[in-house]
């Protein structure tokens, strides 16, 4: 898969995994992200290895992240989306979503899915809607999996 990058003023968004700061991503996900508190760094590393990742950078510092789990044919799951608090308000989450939704390897998918507790407004700007028939969806969820 070819790396894609866009410069947006003083910010860079890139799919190049060699640029990712795994420790910074782990720090955010394990301490600030309500969906993955206490996640071990090894789990973050494995997740990144098996995903299409988007890093957001300012002055070569990792300030945001998102990842896609996909078969690149029919379905994609969007997860672990964040922009560091001190960099919010610059439209970076919108630019990140634009790049994700326009990524050449993610076109023509039948279904996209995500879970969010607080960013519905952002995703609705890109055509996302509530699940039409939640009675068809099931899950197996262990919210305490990272608690020791």
Automatic annotation (TrEMBL):
The keyword Transferase belongs to this UniProt entry's keyword annotation: yes
Signal peptide: none
Coiled coil segments of this chain: none
Residues in N-acetyltransferase domain copies: 11-148
GO molecular function, one term: acyltransferase activity, transferring groups other than amino-acyl groups
Pfam families in alphabetical order: Acetyltransf_1
Keyword list, A-Z: Transferase
Keyword Oxidoreductase: no
Xref: InterPro entries: Acetyltransferase_Butenolide, Acyl_CoA_acyltransferase, GNAT_dom
UniProt cross-references to PANTHER family, sorted A to Z: FAMILY N-ACETYLTRANSFERASE, PUTATIVE (AFU_ORTHOLOGUE AFUA_6G03350)-RELATED
This protein's name: N-acetyltransferase
């Amino acid at each position: 898969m070819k790396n894609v990058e866009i410069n947006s003023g003083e910010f860079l968004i890139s799919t190049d995994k060699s640029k990712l700061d795994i420790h910074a991503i782990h720090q955010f996900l394990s301490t600030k992200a309500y969906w993955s508190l206490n996640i071990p760094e090894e789990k973050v590393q494995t997740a990144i290895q098996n995903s299409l990742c988007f890093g957001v950078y300012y002055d070569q510092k990792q300030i945001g992240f998102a990842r896609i789990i996909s078969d690149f044919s029919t379905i994609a799951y969007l997860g672990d989306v964040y922009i560091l608090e001190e960099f919010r308000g610059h439209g970076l989450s919108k630019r990140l979503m634009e790049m994700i939704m326009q990524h050449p390897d993610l076109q023509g998918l039948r279904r996209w899915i995500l879970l969010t507790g607080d960013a519905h407004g952002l995703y609705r700007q890109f055509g996302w809607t509530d699940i039409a028939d939640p009675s068809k969806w099931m899950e197996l969820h262990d919210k305490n999996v990272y608690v020791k």
